Amino acid sequence: MSKFGSAEAGLAKSFGPAHTWYITGCGFAPGVGGRETKRAPACTRGRIMVVAFRTWIDRYLEADRHVISGREVIRRQRDLIARKQADGRTTDDSEELLALFERTQTIFEDDLARITRECA
Q: Would you state the torsion angle of the CA atoms of residues 87, 92, 94, 95, taken in this order, to the nearest 10 degrees?
C-alpha cells in the first residue's frame, strides 16, 4: 500500500484506473477559477491536491470516436436533405445545420491529427 492509502483507492474509483496521478501541494486547482475541468479533475485532501491527467491513448480514443460519430451525423444529415428535396420541401435549415456539422467535423479531425502528432 502506498503512503496515501485508501485516498488513492477512492480517487481511482472516482476517475478510473486509466489515469496517471500527479500529487501536488500547490493548493490550487487547474482550470478556470480553480474549478475542475474535464481534462484535469481535481480533488483536494487538506493541503495536498491530487490531479488526474488523461493518458494519451484515452485522448486519442475519444478523438477517434468523435471523428467516427461526426461522419455518421453528416451522412444522416445529407440523407435527410436528399429526402426533403425528393419530397419538394425546403432544405435551408437542414443545409445550415449540415454546414455546422461539417465545421465541427473539421475541428474533430484537426484534434485527432494534433493528438496523433503529439505522440509521433
A: 110
